[in-house]
Design a protein that fits this description.
The chain is built from 18 helices and 13 strands. With 535 residues, the protein is an alpha/beta fold.
Length: 535
């Protein structure tokens, strides 16, 4: 399991290869918890919501072009620093490169009998009840709202009844920090204190899913710190067996600490090594297809409140059986990756290429097979019809007002924090220099092809102990050393990779206890650091 990849695929896969050579450990599957940055070309860079100084090509394009192939099957969700135009092509999931699979806005797949679900993006209450209306070229608001979680995805996931083994979200479920070593977390990230004490750190939508799905494992990233927790769920009846979730948040990719974790999970050793559809999830998609919304109008999901004729869209056994019959009981996801954009060529830079709205053949095939609505096709139709009536531009202006705080119906959640409102010096911040940034320009500065310094970085690979359980919140707060037993602050002794601690640069070194203030001259685009926590 990896935290925020930030496009550093070469480093990530090279680290896994080194792990195999040194310790004879070869993972069957790699999960990435967002900020994957599947950037194919310069146009994709311009669709990524980060200050210009962070817009680097990195190495994904080599895997997209076929120059390289991921050495291990990789499944990822989206975060809040993504090539949103690329991921938008695959709202139901699909291959972004050979052997690299995106779960979509929300999705569930199976691998060797292990059921894996996830939801992409981060939570923002002012966009939560809107439809997926954004499309490239994005404006200053939609480049951000494109990756905000929507209620339709949460609603779909809440229709699931069968057990989930693993679930991924980019931002943390709200309140999860009360089930781990909170003191140690605040010692490492003191600027989280206000949000933790007010219980506003993290996503309330993810918290709702955690309570409903009760997966065995929940993995997140986003806040660039490693943190483990153990949540015992309440049972609804005496007959129901108690369930618990082992939560783990990972740090960002090399050279930073704790970005990767090896976890051994029970699976079917006789199963093939192909990624498979989940029949119940497909049945839920079919049942909820009529709820598809591609407008920016806020709306609520059906619920049992007397206002809706139907509110239960869960899949019946008969519906699941029909899906299996449609697939002839062959759930293997087809390897139908298709190039849909020109690949970056270092010898022929294209700095001014415009991003375009693309219909991906994978999505077209998936929708045709299961009778689903192609969201991008609907968006394109709405855009063309609106342009013909001269209304599309007016809708964009209305959306800009809504996204910057206009009056709208109150959200079912009363806060708008998905990350933190205080400054996190370890996150991607507002540009410290210069004025407002122009979305029409990007800094195409390919990262040098230097091999990673494994002597300094490999120590950050941790082998997860058999149990990730941690004590209750009260017990954890009694000592800062307690969580060390669970592989969060040090390596498990019998599986140690001879970790050498890395010295953290900045912060309070040299006696400087203050946090460096960030200039906000570019607020017009990156509205405020607490708008997206600009990790």
């Amino acid at each position: 399991v990896a935290g925020c990849c930030h496009g550093a695929l070469d480093k990530m896969y090279e680290t896994l290869e080194l792990l195999q050579r040194r310790h004879n450990v070869r993972p069957d599957l790699l999960l990435c918890c967002g900020d994957f940055q599947a950037v194919r070309n310069e146009a994709d860079l311009r669709c990524m919501a980060v200050p210009a100084k962070y817009r680097h090509m990195q190495t994904f394009y080599r895997y997209y072009s076929g120059e390289k192939k991921a050495p291990v099957l990789t499944v990822f969700i989206g975060g809040n620093h993504e090539a949103s135009n690329h991921l938008q092509e695959l709202p139901y999931g699909g291959w972004v490169a050979p052997n690299i699979y995106y779960l979509g806005y929300a999705g569930v797949v199976r691998f060797r009998g292990v059921r894996i679900g996830g939801i992409s993006g981060i939570f923002k209450s002012h966009d939560y009840r809107k439809g997926h209306f954004e499309c490239p070229p994005y404006n200053q608001q939609t480049i951000r709202s494109a990756y905000h979680v929507r209620n339709i995805e949460v609603f779909k996931l809440k229709q699931l009844k069968r057990p989930i083994d693993i679930f991924m979200s980019h931002d943390w479920p709200r309140s999860i920090y009360h089930y781990g070593n909170k003191k140690q977390l605040l010692k490492m990230k003191s600027f989280f204190r206000q949000e933790v004490e007010s219980n506003t750190l993290g996503s309330p939508a993810a918290s709702e899913l955690l309570q409903h799905l009760k997966p065995t494992y929940w993995f997140s990233a986003h806040l660039h710190v490693k943190f483990a927790a153990f949540m015992q769920h309440q049972t609804n009846s005496k007959e129901e067996l108690p369930k618990a979730t082992k939560f783990l948040a990972l740090d960002k990719c090399l050279p930073h600490r704790d970005f990767l974790q090896i976890i051994d999970i029970e699976h079917d050793p006789s199963a093939g090594d192909s990624l498979e559809y989940d029949a119940e999830w497909i049945a839920v998609l079919k049942a909820t297809n009529s709820l598809a919304n591609v407008t920016q109008s806020s709306w609520n999901m059906p619920e049992n409140n007397g206002l809706h004729a139907k509110w239960d869209y869960s899949a019946t056994e008969e519906a699941i059986k029909e899906v299996l019959e449609e697939l002839n009981h062959n759930l293997k996801i087809p390897c139908n990756f298709t190039l849909t954009a020109a690949c970056y060529d270092p010898s022929k830079p294209q700095k001014h290429v415009e991003p375009v709205h693309t219909i991906n053949p994978q999505t077209t095939e998936f929708c045709a097979q299961f009778g689903l609505t192609d969201i991008n096709d609907r968006i394109q139709q709405a855009k063309e019809e609106g342009s013909a009536r001269g209304e599309y531009e007016e809708e964009e202006e209305e959306e800009e007002m809504d996204s910057t705080g206009s009056a709208e119906e109150p959200s079912e959640y009363n806060t708008d924090n998905s990350g933190l409102s205080s400054i996190n010096p370890d996150e991607i911040m507002l540009d410290e220099e210069g004025g407002d940034e122009d979305l029409s320009t990007c800094s195409v500065d390919p990262s040098p092809d230097h091999p990673p310094d494994f002597s300094a970085s490999f120590s950050d690979i941790r082998i997860m102990p058999d149990s990730m359980a941690v004590s209750s919140d009260d017990a954890m707060d009694s000592t800062n050393e307690e969580l060390d037993k669970y592989g969060v602050s040090k390596q498990v002794e019998e599986k140690s990779l001879n970790e050498r601690p890395l010295k953290r640069i900045g912060g309070n070194e040299n006696g400087n206890g203050g946090i460096k203030k960030i200039k906000r001259r570019n607020q017009a685009i990156y509205a405020a650091e607490d708008e997206d926590k600009t990790e």
